[in-house]
Fold these 3 entries.
Entry 1:
Amino acid sequence: MKKAPIQYGKSYLYSETDGMDLTYFIDYQCRIIVRAIQGFLDTYQKIRRDIEAFDRWLWDSGLYRQLNDNQRILFNIAKDDHHQRFTVRGVENNLGCSYNTAAAALNGLIDLGLFRKQKEDREWIYFLLDKHTIQKSWKS
């Protein structure tokens, strides 16, 4: 309605002046739905292409091949959920590895320029950097 308020008004008036024939109004609403679906599909395709390009870059740059199995698991989880937060204890429990192995995996991701960490209370929290920062730091 915000994008075409005049068309909405016309469809309403046409319905009223044509014996309450709702065809005009329904046609307008269907066009709104089609426009919304097309907007969604366009956004989806753009995001999909962006993800594919980043995945291709990860492989072509050789960065992905430098990760060990635990780091790949953590990186893929973080890549799929950008708001994911990791702790050494959480990784230890979820991957079923030792504390030192979990810490080494997370710190290795920092060393490769994929993650950052910050202290919250008495615990380090690890986060994935955004893909533009990763690509920029890897090129330099």
Entry 2:
Amino acid sequence: MATLQDLTAQLLNNRALGEIAGTFKQQDIIEIWSDLRKLIAHCYVGTEGSVKRTDNANMLLLRIRTGLANAISQVMGIALDEAYGKADEFIGRLPSVLESLDLDIQAMLDGDPAAENKSITVLAYPGYLAIQTYRLAHELVLMGIPMIPRIMSEHAHSLTGIDINPGATIGKSFFIDHGTGIVIGETCVIGDNVKIYQGVTLGALSTRKGRQLVGIRRHPTIENNVTIYAGAVILGGDTVIGKYSTIGGGTFIIKSIPPYSKVSMQMPQMRIEQDLRAREGDSLFEIPE
């Protein structure tokens, strides 16, 4: 029987990737993400001018700065001083992120009668959580920081069931309603005032080329003012959904759609049989012995 030392050697043999520091912890990124969420929530709740609100925001910013600098140093293999510079750059981008989120929140209020106010959208809506995480993670992608944005996005994915790759490009006033099962791929481009419902896939056509397609457009373009209903599947880097189009639920699209279009599936035939002899509580689908 192999000794514990032998098993350890077998497990570790030739598996060290050397891509990030051995001290790197996924949980550290999740804690940074959590602090960013708390910070943004502080921006929308509480009383304007409150000293406690300001103190809490300052404390969170300091913690985010320190945690992010350490994480950047580990994933990029750079000195801590340089990593702090990148953390400061990210923090400097937060006001513009909040401006984008303001528009997203308003889009949710405009598009969903069940959204009673901004607070419930910020604190309770999974669509907002997914969009918020995307907007934060996307800034890190634009800065060329690896690993961290993907961990943030996948954590939000695990909580919401909404999978938005942080490399995607998404315009202003984006609205996700319900959201479960939505997939938005890395090279997808989405314009302004777009609304999508649960189960929508904006994906790539299946390929075996793998790493050869890194950096090549594989996902569709959705132009401004498009609505995509539940369960629609839109695939391919050459596929463009033209502005002001409405894509019906359950459609499968791999070719471009011109602007101002309505796309829908033919309504399937539904058969209804009424059995007036059935008694209350009986099943109409029971099989007789």
Entry 3:
Amino acid sequence: EIDGAEVCDIAIQTNNVNIDDRGLIYAVDRAHTGLHIVELTGEAAAIVGL
């Protein structure tokens, strides 16, 4: 309970992950917390040829 209101924890459940040719990674969350976009960089990007 926070400030008199009941609050439930949200568990992030990321799936449906895709990567584009620029190294951007798109991950959709099943718990309705949104679309997450991150960029592949450094050694990981070099391994896949970006």
